[in-house]
Specification:
By secondary structure, the chain is α/β, with parallel strands linked by helices. It has a single domain, classed as Amidase signature (AS) domain (Amidase signature (AS) enzymes, Alpha-Beta Complex). 40% of the residues lie in helices and 11% in strands. It contains 17 helices and eleven strands. An eleven-stranded mixed β-sheet has the order 1-3-2-4-6-5-10-11-9-7-8, with helices on both faces. Helix 3 (28-46) packs antiparallel against helix 4 (54-69) and helix 11 (315-330) packs across helix 14. The protein is globular, with a radius of gyration of 22 Å. The protein starts with a helix and ends in a 15-residue tail after the last helix. The model has no long low-confidence stretch (mean pLDDT 96). Residues 138-151 have a biased composition (Polar residues). Heterotrimer of A, B and C subunits. Belongs to the amidase family. GatA subfamily. It catalyses: L-glutamyl-tRNA(Gln) + L-glutamine + ATP + H2O = L-glutaminyl-tRNA(Gln) + L-glutamate + ADP + phosphate + H(+). It comes from Alloscardovia macacae.
């Protein structure tokens, strides 16, 4: 197809693509080929993908085209292609978690979310880049090179799921899946002008998601519109008996909530401004866009009040004890014995199992992963477990209580998604603590297990996107979607279109 036709196709929302597919105006094969063409053009500049599964995607597209031709009933997103964060297991497609220790591993099974995508007739374009084992906030810690922000290739796309966010932001994919442990879907969403959702913990199966921190990890959607996120979350959500933490109830009605929100009537909704996530520490441009968005919520009839979550100031500290502790436990399985990399001791060093494990881990794990394993091992060690890990879990309980109390007063909570816009490569690499502080607004939702969504709120003075975050009560993900869709519609009116219209896209020939 010609360049203009391709560009018109890839810039549609996933919902629009699905409508055109079902109406017979476009085939799934055409959608796949259009995105593969953009991937070929964009990847030298973006590096969002670790593996492009072109043959698999085309085969899956042809299969769903045949189902449509036969008049079979189709899922809401049938025919629409998707990219997958390489933290999620895909049968027959290399899965590495962006680590040398898993290089070359071809999983013999699919994650539950992948099974659901296949059942829905959604072709898989490939696996996206991330910080190794999802440990980072910039995608600078991948063993396979940085992913660049499509808005400015000298800046990070956020992390750990920068590959998924950059792929969607650069029109290489209309949809992607990510994993969110402390903001790894929402913060890249804020940095790349995309929509990122962390569902309620247990609302989407984690079976087949490579574990980083099991009590915090959650698979969720990466999209360009709120409605697309609702459609994708309904597709992958619901109970899974293979996941012991899966909530035994169906996915809530998020699509209808998003459609209701597009009417832009928030009368009767009470919105809480989180006192502890405003003002100091947030860039002026971020705060300005956030305050303007709050004014839009008020204009649509929402009542806005300030709410305090007093223990939120301890969230970062608690997270950076709990998370590395669980990392230390989960990554112990990568020992060179059963799968993945194996490095034998050099000549002169006894060829024992312990030495083989040591040399394998030294070669296979990157610096950030080693740092977190060491932190977690220390926190779990004899004499320190109660003082560190035990205390952090008590703080977590207090934060959960803060959220519960807040939701007795308001329907949703709001804050900026990140304190700043995307920073330049290398700017925070030498200062891990500064990098960690960038997650201050996203971490609390993971500690509490509550759902949260980040949507674009415009551009800061530096021309980079700003994210606006909604947080809802546990198991009430649908509550996120109405105000998020309403605000999205209001801001698009204000900007005369979506935020991506201001992005320079040389890979599209524009």
């Amino acid at each position: 197809m010609d360049t203009q036709t391709r560009n018109n196709l890839v810039q549609l929302s996933a919902a629009q693509m699905a409508e055109k597919f079902k109406a017979g105006e476009v085939s799934s094969r055409e959608l796949v080929d259009a995105h593969l063409d953009v991937i070929e053009s964009a990847e030298p500049q973006i590096n969002a993908f670790l593996k492009v599964s072109a043959d698999v995607a085309r085969e899956q597209a042809d299969a769903v085209d045949a189902k449509r031709a036969a008049g079979e009933e189709l899922a809401p997103l049938a025919g629409v292609p998707i990219a997958i964060k390489d933290m999620i297991v895909t049968k027959g497609i290399e899965t590495t978690a962006a680590s040398k220790i898993l290089e070359g591993w071809i999983p013999p099974y699919d994650a539950t979310v992948i099974t659901k995508l296949k059942q829905a007739g959604m072709p898989i374009l490939g696996k996206t880049n991330l910080d190794e084992f999802a440990q980072g906030s910039s995608t600078e810690h991948s063993a396979y090179g940085n992913t660049n922000n499509p808005w400015d290739t000298e800046r990070v796309p956020g992390g750990s799921g920068g590959g998924s966010a950059a792929a969607v932001g650069a029109f290489e994919a209309p949809l992607a899946l990510g994993t969110d442990t402390g903001g790894s879907i929402r913060q890249p969403g804020a940095f790349t002008g995309t929509v990122g959702v962390k569902p309620t913990y247990g609302g989407v199966s984690r079976f087949g998601a490579i574990a980083m921190a099991s009590s915090l990890d959650q698979i969720g959607p990466v999209t360009r519109t709120v409605l697309d996120s609702a459609l994708l979350q309904e597709t992958i959500g619901g109970h899974d008996p293979k996941d012991s933490t899966s909530i035994p109830s169906p996915a809530p009605a998020m699509v209808s909530a998003a459609l209701e929100g597009q009417k832009r009537d928030l009368s009767g909704m009470k919105v809480g401004l989180i006192k502890e996530l405003s003002g100091d520490g947030f860039d002026e441009g971020v705060s300005q866009r956030f305050n303007e968005a709050v004014d839009e919520l008020k204009a649509m009839g929402a009542e806005v009040v300030e709410v305090s979550l007093p223990h939120l100031k301890y969230a970062l500290g608690a997270y950076y004890v709990i998370m590395p502790s669980e990392v230390s436990s989960n990554l112990a399985r990568y020992d060179g014995m059963r799968y993945g990399l194996r490095v034998m001791p050099p000549e002169g060093v006894p060829a024992t199992a312990a030495n083989m494990m040591a040399y394998t881990r030294e070669a296979g794990f990157g610096d950030e992963v080693k740092r977190r394993i060491i932190l977690g091992t220390y926190a779990l060690s004899a004499g320190y477990y109660d003082a560190w890990y035990g205390s952090a879990q008590k703080v977590r309980t207090l934060i959960i209580a803060d959220f519960n109390k807040a939701f007795e007063q308001v329907d949703v909570l709001v804050s900026p998604t990140a304190p700043s816009t995307a920073f330049k490569f290398g700017e925070k690499s030498a200062d891990p603590l500064s990098m960690y502080l960038g997650d201050i607004a996203t971490i609390p939702a993971n500690l509490a297990g509550v759902p949260a969504i980040s949507i674009p709120a415009g551009l800061s003075e530096d021309g980079m996107p700003v994210g606006f975050q909604f947080i809802a009560p546990q198991q009430h993900d649908e509550v996120l979607y109405k105000p998020a869709a309403a605000l999205e519609a209001a801001l698009e009116d204000k900007w005369n279109g979506p935020v991506w219209q201001w992005m320079t896209t040389p890979w599209l020939g524009e």
